[in-house]
Amino acid sequence: MHRFTRALATIAAAVVVSTGFVVGPVASASAAVPAAGTTGATTASATTAPATTAPGFGRYTPLAAPTVWRGTVRTTPTTVTLPGIPATATAATLVVQVAAPTAAGVVSVVPVGSADRPPLQDYVRGRAVAGATTVAVSGGRVQVVLSAGTATVSLVVAGSYGSSGSTYAPVTPASLFSGTVAATRPTTVRVTGRAGVPVGATAAVLDVRVSSPAGAGSVSVTAQGVSNRAAVTQAFSSKGLSIANTATVRLPASGAVDVRTSGVASGVTVTVVGYWSAKASGLVFVPADGARVASTTVSSTVQRVRVAGAGGIPTTARAAVLTARTKGLSASGWFHVGAAGAAVATTQVVAKSQSLAATVTVPIAPTGTVQTRAKAGSGALNLDAVGYFVDGTSGVGTGADVSYPQCGSALPTDQAFGVVGVNAALANTTNPCFSSQLAWAGLSAGGTAQPKAQLYVLFANPAAAAASTWPTSNVFKGYAPKNPYGSCSTRAGGKPQNSPACSFLYGYALGGDDTTKRGVANPGSHRWWIDVETQFSHQTDTALNRTVLEGMIAGLQSGGAKSIGFYSTASQWATVAGVVPKTSTAYGRSSWIAIGPGTLAAAQKACSAPGLAGGKTAMTQYVTTFGKTTIDRDVSCT
Predict the structure, then answer these.
(1) Is 519 left (phi over 0), alpha (psi -120 to 50) or beta?
(2) Burial of 381: CB neighbours in 10 Å, binned 0-12, 13-18, 19+
(3) pLDDT at residue 183 greater than cutoff 50
(4) In the chain, at which end, N or C, are there fewer CB atoms within 10 A of the end residue's CB?
(5) Alpha helices (H) along 331-403
(6) Alpha carbon distance 434, 420 (integer Å)
(7) Distance from CA of residue 382 to its chain's centroid?
(8) What is the SS3 assignment for 139?
(9) Considering the entire predicted model, what is its pTM?
(10) pLDDT confidence of residue 52
């Protein structure tokens, strides 16, 4: 991970630095603008608290009419600029249709540059099929790719997410229409004023199921009065084939949608699962990494599957958009993914042993779970994260950490909690922007197990020869603590020495200064972290480094700090501190583990790592894009 790039020369000149993988909690000093999926930014002097209503990001704006991109797609990614999507959009809702594929495989639609290929929908040679998704966009662009063969692919764009628009609210799934749609005319279905969808709603999420069509064709669902036969919701490749898909549809003033088929009469069921409106307290969308949330077995017994806290979905998420893909069901029928405790309804219709997917928008229970079931038999079921919805109580559900390199730069405004560096480049210096950055952290949304505003300080052990000042007695820089290692004294000739007693006192002075001289008004009101890295001064004798850590803990505690943990990576901790004995005051303390550049899903997996000093892993950190630069994001593991 990156840290202190503009201060390395100063550090090298001032202290003894051992080279190593650089991870620290501080992000790049470059000016930042908000990245896809973030709320925007504020300078460190912000004083306005986040709204208790829905945050100002992830709001949905439907297109007046669906737009369509169509082209030939192969096994190498094709970059597509989505028609009608503003360059500032963070995500877009799509239906992806695959026609005339030359081989069997899966289609994926991913953010530009993503190395991941989460399967969106399965296709077989010569047969058309469609799948719905929501995907993060950059400059209005995405990439589409096949796993095998070539095909004509259509991307039907329904709308986009950004800083303005409507908020989302789930409803108990309810059927709005079930009947035959004629081949010659659309069937109009009223959505608003029914099933909990209010008059004035701007868009709706509809599950659309086709059953017993009179022949091959397609079905489309659009706002009433909008005719765009290219805007396919689902394709069916043969007579009698039942299949389902999700449609995100704009709701006009009439509150109704038109259901059409492409020239063949078909049985159609339309079920509403949620809507968007101008409601201030609704949910907002955050695109996920497309990571696997769960791999499980679906059967005729209802099962609860945990989705929050894994696959890039935070524990604070209120709803999720998931791609549910089944494989190898032992009996024909359907499978279901829905809200825990809700009535079982069809998510997708599948034949025995068929691989097929569907995207679902589903509320998450307070336990972090959704429910699954198959009509009959059993088979594999994979759930991949498309995105998630949050309310105004937790921001995006992750924290962020900042320090002196961010002075004057834009900071995120969507964090659930913030961690602020107390020091500047060295352990004996002060972050010049500490006060304003602490105020920024205090404005965090909360909603996780982490305190809204936390602090971190730098470890250092330059030893007697390299330190600008080093203890020569049990009184140092005005501190005279009880020293568990005895008396600090000089060696022959009055020169300072690297004894355990002197090392403890050096650490004590660092911790004491951090609580009394860095502008921390109430040390006891914050959680503290000691940042331990190989790039900071340290000795080859890990026991002496641990002694300094013990001194820092005692110094922090003397100033009122109560909760103190460690930040590092496992490898750097081993180099600097080694194995912490149970007799040490460092033993059993919480850990904040850095993984470097990565994703929320990867950081969530790192929560299972053992603690650095015998305690639990309380937080993990990953580096991610923030506008034109990067920033450190933090995950609460509890």
Answers:
(1) left
(2) buried
(3) yes
(4) C
(5) none
(6) 7
(7) 19
(8) coil
(9) 0.86
(10) 57
Domain spans, the chain: 53-165, 167-281, 283-392, 398-636
Q: Which CATH number fits domain 398-636: 1.10.260.40, 3.20.20.80, 3.40.120.10, 3.40.1120.10?
A: 3.20.20.80
Q: What angle do CA 472, 475, 477 make, to 5 degrees?
A: 95
Q: What is the CATH architecture of 283-392?
A: Sandwich (2.60)
Write the CB contacts of 609 (distance below 8 Å, at least 6 apart in sequence). 570, 593, 617, 620
Residue indicated by tokens 């304003």: 436
User: How far apart (Å, rounded) are the C-alpha atoms in residues 343 and 151?
Assistant: 38
d(CA 140, CA 84): 9
Cβ atoms of 633 and 314 within 8 Å: the answer is no
Q: Which own/partner pairs from 500-503 qualify as long-range (CB within 8 Å, at least 24 positions apart)?
A: 500/543, 500/544, 500/547, 501/474, 502/464, 502/470, 502/471, 502/472, 503/461, 503/544, 503/547, 503/548, 503/551
* Bridge partners of residue 134, in order along the sequence: 93
Would you say 133 and 110 are in contact if contact means Cβ atoms under 8 Å apart? no
Torsion 602-140-82-167 (CA) sign: positive
The kind and range of the H/E element at 14 are: helix 8-14
Q: Which among 252, 274, 159 is positioned nearest to 207, based on CA atoms?
A: 274
- Tokens representing residue 413 in the block: 């405004």
- Percentage of the chain beyond pLDDT 70 is 92
How far is CA 80 from its chain centroid?
24
- If one counts every other C-beta atom within 10 angstroms of the C-beta of residue 79, the result is 10
User: Tokens 């992000």 map to which residue?
Assistant: 27
Place of tokens 């026991």: 543
Residue position matching structure tokens 């964090």: 415
* Backbone torsions φ then ψ of 266, nearest 5 degrees: -145, 150
- In angstroms, the CA 551 to CA 514 distance is 12
Contact indicator for 309, 368 with CB cutoff of 8 Å: yes
Helix, strand, coil % over all residues of the chain, rounded to 5: 10, 40, 50
* Predicted confidence (pLDDT) per residue in 428-465, tens digit: 999 999 999 999 999 999 999 999 999 999 999 999 99
* 167-281 to CATH, choices 2.40.128, 2.40.160, 1.20.120, 2.60.120: 2.60.120
- Bridge partners (DSSP) of residue 513 are none
Distance CA 68, CA 82 (A): 8
CATH of 53-165, one of 1.20.120.80, 3.40.50.80, 2.60.120.340, 2.40.420.20: 2.60.120.340
E strand spans, 348-485: 348-350, 356-363, 369-374, 378-390, 399-402, 411-412, 418-421, 453-458
Query: Which amino acid type is present at position 14?
Result: A
Give the confidence band of 25 by pLDDT, cuts at 50, 70, 90: low
CA 445 distance to own-chain centroid = 15
Q: pLDDT by residue (tens digit) across 373-425?
A: 999 999 999 999 999 999 988 899 999 999 999 999 999 999 999 999 999 99
Q: What dihedral angle (degrees, nearest 10) is formed by the CA atoms of 213, 67, 319, 275?
A: -80
Listed in sequence order, the residues at least 6 apart from 251 whose beta carbon sits closer than 8 Å to its beta carbon are: 62, 191, 192, 201, 202, 203, 204, 223, 257, 275
Q: Please list the residues that pair with 619 across neighbouring strands.
A: 592, 636
> Do 283-392 and 398-636 share a fold?
no
